[in-house]
Amino acid sequence: MKSNRHVEMDLGPDWTVKMAWPEEGDIQGGPIAVLIEPSDPQAYPAGGISSTVLRSVDFRAAMAKLRSQLANADRWRRRSDEYEAGRIERIRDALAKGISPEYLALLSSAYVSRVNSGQAKPVEHLAEDIGKSLQTIRGHLWRARKEGLLTGSAGRKGGQLTPEASAILSRIVPNAPQEVRPPSSQ
């Protein structure tokens, strides 16, 4: 089931049910797909799926679990958006004081985070968010690599923060999360 709006629940010790709702729109109704599988794919329960197994599917509990998952995802998204807005503000403030190791570490951290999250064109988006040209931000990331704050080679997407950059970030943003990830949907 390829839906982000899905619920998986156990039906006793032998069976698992997976339910999916549409990606968009209201979730007032029931699921659009239901899949019942053995809990252990190597050992199918004797007799297969029975009417007793089917009656044990709790649609109300699945709907409650889905609503809880969606609420948690919304809370995480809001916290992540707030953190990212604060991060961009810290980068702008640091840049206003000049191109320092603190600025380069903050910029590198935002860049690595965006690359690791799979954002398309992370340098372009950073440039737009910070209010600088694409070439300027590319040059600053090149300088971060040259100064030993970011691994990787210029012109290639990705890299990692060096221990030196991590130490700078720990000093200037002491309560920052190490990595912001969404909660599991399971």
How is this structure best summarized?
The protein has 186 residues and is mostly helical. It is built from 6 helices and 3 strands. The longest helix is centred in the middle third of the chain and has 38 residues, at 59-96.
Shape: elongated
State the share of residues found in helices, binned by percent: 40-55%
If you compute it from the alpha carbons, what radius of gyration comes out, rounded to the nearest whole angstrom? 23 Å
Strand percentage lies at 5-15%
Q: Label the structural class.
A: mainly alpha
- What name is given to the CATH topology of the largest domain? Arc Repressor Mutant, subunit A
How can the largest sheet be summarized? 3 strands, antiparallel
In order across it, which strands form the biggest sheet?
1-2-3
Mean of the pLDDT scores? 88
Q: What's the CATH class of the largest domain, please? A: Mainly Alpha
Question: How far from one another are the termini?
Answer: 13 Å
Q: Report the total helices.
A: 6
User: Architecture of the largest domain in CATH?
Assistant: Orthogonal Bundle
Task: Note the run of SSEs as H and E.
Answer: EEEHHHHHH
Offer a few descriptive terms.
single chain; 186 residues; Arc Repressor Mutant, subunit A; 2 domains; 49% helix; 10% strand
Question: How are the SSEs placed, and which strands pair?
Answer:
Blueprint: E1 6-11, E2 15-20, E3 33-38, H1 51-55, H2 59-96, H3 101-116, H4 122-130, H5 134-146, H6 163-172
Antiparallel strand pairs: 1-2, 2-3
Helix pairs in contact: 2-3, 3-5, 3-6, 4-5
